[in-house]
Amino acid sequence: MVSEGGEVGKTCIWNDELDECYIQNSVHKVPLNALQDARFFLYLFFVYGKLGVFESIVNRVSISHLVLEKLINVDFAIPPLQEQKAIASYLDTQITKIDLAIEKTKQQITYI
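Structure tokens predicted for Restriction endonuclease subunit S (112 residues):
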């Protein structure tokens, strides 16, 4: 799912955590096929958001709106599935290390 308004492009993965899920019109559902890894797309959308790709194409009056017509026209660099999985796994590992380092630093700060 991709945020359409406010922080456009902010993405999350829906893993059927609830029996039913309803989304409002400010969220786009992005269906993936068997050749697309959800974790890879989560990172890809994060990077595109940070690089300003979505901000460069949004409609803006008071807050940004990433309409579906513009989202589907964004060019995405999509490697083969195995490479997507390898990239996502690598990033998962690195983020875990970073999170642990942050937590350790926070604990050390409390001792000061």
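The two ends are 42 Å apart (CA to CA).
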